[in-house]
Write a structure and sequence with these properties.
The complex is a heterodimer of chains A (about 170) and B (about 650). Chain A is α+β, with helices and mostly antiparallel strands. Chain A has two domains: about 20-85, Arc Repressor Mutant, subunit A; about 95-170, Glutaredoxin (3-Layer(aba) Sandwich). Chain A has nine helices and four strands, in the order ααααααβααβββα. Chain A has helices at about 5-10, 20, 25-35, 45-55, 60-70, 75-85, 105, 110-120, 165-170; strands spanning about 95-100, 135-140, 150-155, 155-160. In chain A, a hairpin with a 2-residue loop joins strand 3 (about 150-155) and strand 4 (about 155-160). The two termini of chain A are about 25 Å apart. Chain B has about 650 residues and is of the alpha/beta class. Chain B folds into four domains: about 5-80, Ubiquitin-like (UB roll); about 135-275, Alpha-Beta Plaits (2-Layer Sandwich), CATH 3.30.70; about 285-360 and about 520-565 and about 580-585 and about 610-650, Rossmann fold, CATH 3.40.50; about 360-515, Dimethylsulfoxide Reductase, domain 2 (3-Layer(aba) Sandwich). Helices cover about 30% and strands about 20% of the residues of chain B. Chain B has 20 helices and 29 strands. The chains are: A alpha+beta (about 170), B alpha/beta (about 650). Chains A and B meet through helix 1, helix 5 and helix 6 of A and strand 8 of B.
Chain lengths: ~170, ~650
């Protein structure tokens, strides 16, 4: 999760597959994104999002690639990317579960939900299930206090969860 | 608008203050002697307003405001010491100290730390925080020169702003958010800016430290003496911190005419050369083929006798002297007097490998008149073969300032890659060796002359054309206050000097020219007369051999005696060549190496930190330095030795 792991993630990214990740298609889409703003730099977060979606996480090469595409310093890309908890630095499962553990959700049982989830998935925070299907991480408030305890799977909200209902939710994701 | 209407008057702590409209409260208070504590504010960086330490109250205002970023409005009444303000300072100090390790006893910053000082002056004295402080692996190297202790950092962003605004290298950023924030470089990158050391000095706490000073000394143990950095032609002002006869560090000492308060890392961390035990501490004289330590009396007597004999046997023309562009003007002056007055030879130069005369001719012809402040006011800047980022780093910051703050157009012409090309409106490459054609073409282009066919073919071979130069001149928009910066080492003959003169003249009366010397006293060695054909003050005199000519003559044994100042700054291979045929080789040296060891008489010299001297920087600014250390053993400043030899030669 933490940006401190970026160095480590960066090393694993030496694998040959990364060539195909920063594809011409990605370059084109980032280029297109820059056209939406008066300043190329403004496409930074969209670009990081695109890479995160393709690769599942960010790494050293992603930082360098985006810096080059947008003509901004690598430090700025790194600083911005590390600011957002929805951007990560470690490989994730096909589906990422973000469990809110902020005030409302905690009061309504987020911790027991997490406990159940860890048991059910058999992995700890930041780890990927052996079948590659899920990984989970805690997250701060996702703005769904009305449905606490709430989680985010990929881009979908799920609220008013119990250990039982979370299992049904998980089944929707293969 | 008159000057008067731009001024406003207000009251701070009961004192009336009149300042220019737009002045921040902090600066206005400072102008009447009221100090407001700050962390993130720095006078030479943009305002961040993030540390909140400078909160003050304005009468009638709803809440305290930051003095660093709030303009003083006419007629307001500001208080910097109300209970609310003091309470705010206490709370900010308590907050900042929550995660601070309070490891002052082992912190290099201890004793000169804003956090310490402000905690003492304004802190609550006790903390209510009983939870775990954040812990980090410490320190992490940002480069081989700079270390970061993240838990000490108060996230003032001075270092980040320096990299963004001053060096423009932009290596540092704040990572993460809130309580997890930390300063970092991009993954697998190093903080390798040649200006990185400035961030250590800017850091208000002990978060950024330098490897060269870490755990070496406490600030209060050191003597601080003003000096001039001797490591390039800029001559930045420094404070030299010494302890027990050792230089511990250099700190910047602001000189608006040169350095704006910054130093480059080459200067800041370059002091470690005076190297204790290896230094030569006794005069050496060759006896039966071997160098033997002798008394000063004997060494000087031997030098006098041998010099006298060389002159009487072979004539004055068989004797030569080499000063140094890295030695003081006084030393160069004495050297040329020894050769010209005492030995009546005209063979004087300041280098064994380059003819020092053409650059002296350029100075005599009125080139080299620019000042660093001219860069701030320039309409445009034309750089020929110059690479200040590498050879005059502080000038690099000056040029960046002009480009960043004033959008000053720069036109660079160079034979190698240089950082300034990135800041130029137009940057062209020429083939090394085609400088003469380039200068002719440039002048023709400035004069809008059509006659250029004869030399253009030479340049075309190097990929340069009249069209490209016209375009560059147009983009740079040469104006009445253009500054032309010429690498002094391109001035290898008189023709080039006159071509530069013609070029500058074609630009108009307001243009100024800088000759960029990469040596500490390249300018001063010439005005001191340590070049062929010029006496001190650039008064012409008969021209003897140049340094390279002396090497050739010595090799062929037509030059019999060679006297060399500042051996460490001369090319060893050239010394070896001269040695082959010379009967007498005298040198002043710090160390005994192959070259100085080949001498017949070797005088142990004082390093630049061990003697007085005047150095003229590349912008013609003469600055004197005082000794901060004693020479080791019997080593002596060159000047006293030369004076004594001259005295004895009279007898």
């Amino acid at each position: 999760m933490s940006a401190q792991h970026a160095g480590r993630a960066g090393q694993t990214a030496e694998r040959p597959e990364r060539k195909s990740v920063f594809s011409n298609d990605l370059v084109e889409r980032i280029e297109k994104a820059t056209l939406r703003y008066p300043d190329r730099k403004a496409a930074l977060i969209p670009a990081l999002n695109m890479i995160q979606r393709e690769l599942g996480y960010l790494n050293r090469d992603a930082v360098r690639f985006v810096a080059k595409q947008l003509s901004i310093p690598e430090s700025e890309v790194y600083g911005t990317a590390s600011f957002y908890s929805l951007l990560g630095w470690q490989p994730t499962g096909r589906h990422v579960i973000h469990v809110c553990h902020n005030l409302s959700c905690s009061l309504l049982g987020a911790e027991s939900l997490i406990e159940h989830l860890e048991k059910k998935l058999g992995v700890g925070e930041g780890e990927v299930t052996p079948d590659g299907r899920f990984s989970y991480a805690r997250i701060e408030c996702i703005g769904r206090c009305d449905g606490a305890p709430a989680i985010l799977i990929d881009d979908d909200y799920h609220g008013n969860l119990t250990p039982e209902s979370i299992e049904q939710v998980l089944e929707q994701y293969t | 608008m008159t000057e008067q209407s731009k001024l406003i008057t207000a009251v701070i702590d009961g004192k009336q203050v009149t300042v220019a409209a737009g002045t921040m409260i902090l600066k206005a208070a400072e102008s009447i002697g009221i100090t407001i504590p700050v962390f993130c504010y720095h006078p030479r960086l943009t305002i961040s307003g993030s540390c909140r330490m400078c909160l003050v109250e304005i009468e009638g205002g709803s809440k305290p405001v930051t003095a660093c970023s709030t303009e003083l409005a006419a007629g307001v009444v500001v208080y910097t010491n109300t209970p609310t303000v003091l309470e705010a300072r206490r709370e900010i100090m308590e907050n900042l100290l929550i995660n601070h390790p309070l490891d002052c006893p082992v912190c290099d910053k201890g004793g000169e730390c804003l956090l310490q000082d402000h905690a003492y002056d304004w802190g609550p004295g006790a903390s209510r925080f009983t939870e775990r402080k954040r812990l980090f692996r410490k320190p992490i190297p940002l480069s081989d020169r700079i270390l970061l202790d993240r838990e000490r950092c108060i996230l003032c962003t001075r270092c980040v702003r320096f990299c963004d605004e001053i060096s423009d290298h932009r290596e540092l950023a704040i990572l993460e958010m809130g309580g997890n924030s930390e300063i970092a470089v991009a993954p697998d990158r190093a903080f390798d800016s040649q200006f990185s050391g400035n961030t250590v000095e800017l850091c208000p706490v002990g978060a950024l430290t330098s490897t060269s000073f870490r755990f070496k000394a406490r600030p209060w143990e050191m003597a601080r003496l003003p000096g001039i950095c001797p490591f390039c032609g800029c001559g930045c002002s420094i404070d030299i911190h010494t302890r027990s006869g050792n230089i511990m560090r250099f700190m910047a000492r602001e000189n608006p005419a040169v350095d704006d308060g910054w130093l480059c890392d080459r200067g800041r961390y370059g002091f470690d050369l005076s190297g204790g035990s290896e230094r030569l501490t006794k005069p050496l004289v060759r006896k039966q083929g071997r160098l033997v330590a002798v008394s000063w009396k004997e060494a000087i007597a031997t030098a006098v006798e041998k010099l006298r004999r060389a002159v009487s046997q072979y004539g004055p023309g068989a004797v030569g002297g080499i000063g140094s562009a890295w030695s003081s003007s006084e030393e160069n002056d004495l050297l040329q007097r020894l050769i010209r007055e005492s030995l009546e030879s005209h063979n004087v130069d300041c280098s064994l490998t380059d003819d020092g005369r053409p650059a002296a001719l350029a100075l005599a012809e009125g080139l080299g008149t620019f000042t660093f402040n001219d860069i701030d006011r320039a309409d445009s800047i034309l750089m020929i073969g110059a690479d200040p980022s590498r050879y005059q780093p502080i000038l690099d910051l000056r040029l960046k300032k002009a480009v960043i703050t004033r959008r000053t157009p720069i036109f660079t012409l160079a034979s190698t890659d240089g950082e300034m090309a990135r800041y130029a409106r137009e940057s062209l490459r020429y083939r090394a060796g085609s400088e003469e054609s380039l200068l002719r073409l440039l002048t023709a282009a400035v004069k809008k002359e059509k006659r250029y066919d004869s030399f253009e073919s030479d340049l075309r071979a190097g990929g340069l054309s009249r069209e490209a130069i016209d375009r560059g001149l147009e983009r740079a928009g040469l104006g009445p206050r253009t500054v032309v910066l010429v690498n002094a080492s391109l001035l290898t003959d008189d023709v080039r000097v006159y071509l530069v003169k013609e070029l500058v003249a074609a630009m108009g009366a307001g243009a100024s020219t800088g000759l960029l010397f990469d040596s500490a006293n390249g300018f001063g060695a010439r005005t001191a007369g340590a070049v062929p054909g010029y006496l001190p003050g650039l008064r012409p005199i008969d021209r003897g051999m140049s340094g390279p000519e002396m090497v050739v003559a010595a090799e062929r044994s037509t030059l019999k005696a060679l006297y060399i100042l500042n051996r460490e700054h001369h090319d060893s291979a050239a010394v070896a060549r001269a040695r082959r045929g010379a009967e007498l080789l005298i040198c002043h040296a710090l160390f005994l190496d192959e070259a100085s060891g080949s001498g017949d008489i070797v005088f142990p010299a004082a390093s630049v930190f061990e003697k007085q001297g005047t150095f003229t920087n590349t912008a013609g600014l003469a600055q004197s330095t005082a000794p901060v250390l004693n020479p080791p053993g019997e080593a002596r400043p060159e000047s006293t030795v030369i004076e004594e030899i001259m005295e004895r030669l009279k007898q």
